[in-house]
Amino acid sequence: MSEELKQLRDQIDAIDNELLQLVSKRAGLAQQVGKIKKSGIVYRPEREAQILARMQEQNPGPVSNEHIKQLFTEIMSLCRALEKPMNVAYLGPNGTFSEEAALKRFGSAITGMACDSIDDVFRMVESDAANYGVVPVENSSEGAIGRTMDLLLQTPLTICGEIQLPVHQFLMAQQTDLAHISKIYSHPQSLAQCHHWLKTNLPHLPDSALINAASNADAARQAAADKQAAAIASHRAAELFGLSICAENIEDDPRNTTRFLVIGKQTVAPSGKDKTSLVMTTNNRSGAIYTLLEPLAQHGVSMSRLESRPSRTGLWQYVFFVDLEGHQQNDNVAAAMTELRDKAAFLKILGSYPAA
Ligand SMILES: O=C(O)C(=O)C[C@]1(C(=O)O)C=C[C@@H](O)C=C1
């Protein structure tokens, strides 16, 4: 070993020793914080969001902000687990984007609970079998996930956070020669998201060779059992099922992103950069939606999302899902909510939480 290499490695060893001492000291402090928390609620999304924002602001480089965020998410994950172990439910099986979203937010020091359906994720949290749930709510190219929105309307749970996950799709099979692929399994949304790529790169495949699977991970499982089949799924699914990657990032829109919500039983304090989600109905008079949006404009509250869903209680009646900038404890949002309560036929605040 050259003298220069040895000196550099000696410095890295010394820094690792210091890092270990610092991480252990931090974990000890988190344990003390855990003992002070009388409510028993360990996870504080607003505090974690503030720490991550500060670390990214102060990041001197050369490590990217994305990697700094991952590193500190993982540090907080292990500190949290020392305060109290946490169960997080998500749409399974393992290897789905929902699992990836859960790990992105909570880090790896959690017990993941893969559920069979979005309904089951809600049920697990409602019955206290899981502390939190992670559910998809919208995709940038395919739109809203209707089932999640319908369940949000009924549930007593609150939204405690959001996760934006860039969705990269991979074509995977037991071998990498595209000419040998005679069918492709995937979730219908993923097949739709890769439509153009499939037509261009696998023109020999008829539409009947594109087979719907219950999830992308299930697609990977089926491809692992059939030499002529491929699957479109996440990179993690390829690892889990021992498949080779034939093509990467095959989604038609490279900005393709899915937004997930964290659902739980707590109200989250303001972080300084928050969102508030609510659902409301009009009294069905002409101009009624204008009446509902007017208080927002008057109090200078910006709306980042407006989505309508059939109400299921009457033909051509709708419920409106609205995301606002700000926390319900902020003066302008609170004032707009007070006015909205008078004007809306029904209003439910789903939660305020740190903006992703
Ligand atoms: O500050 C707290 O409340 C802590 O419990 C510490 C800590 C952390 O590791 O910094 C851990 C869990 C919480 O979600 C927030 C922050």
How would you state the average pLDDT, rounded?
94
Q: What class would the helix/strand composition place it in?
A: alpha/beta
In the CATH hierarchy, the architecture of the largest domain is: 3-Layer(aba) Sandwich
CATH class annotation of the largest domain: Alpha Beta
CATH topology descriptor of the largest domain? D-Maltodextrin-Binding Protein, domain 2
Instruction: Profile the largest sheet.
Output: 6 strands, mixed
The value of Rg in angstroms is: 23 Å
The helix/strand series, from N terminus to C terminus, equals HHHEHEHEEHEEEHHEHEHEEEHEEHE
- The CATH homology group name of the largest domain: Periplasmic binding protein-like II
Number of structurally distinct domains: 4
Number of helices: 12
Distinct bound molecules: prephenic acid
- Low-confidence segments: none
Into which percentage range does the β-strand content fall? 25-35%
Protein name: Bifunctional chorismate mutase/prephenate dehydratase
Domain Prephenate dehydratase: 87-265
InterPro entries: ACT-like_dom_sf, ACT_dom, Chor_mutase/pphenate_deHydtase, Chorismate_II_sf, CM_dom_sf, CM_II_prokaryot, G/b/e-P-prot_chorismate_mutase, Preph_deHydtase
Pathway: Metabolic intermediate biosynthesis; prephenate biosynthesis; prephenate from chorismate: step 1/1; Amino-acid biosynthesis; L-phenylalanine biosynthesis; phenylpyruvate from prephenate: step 1/1
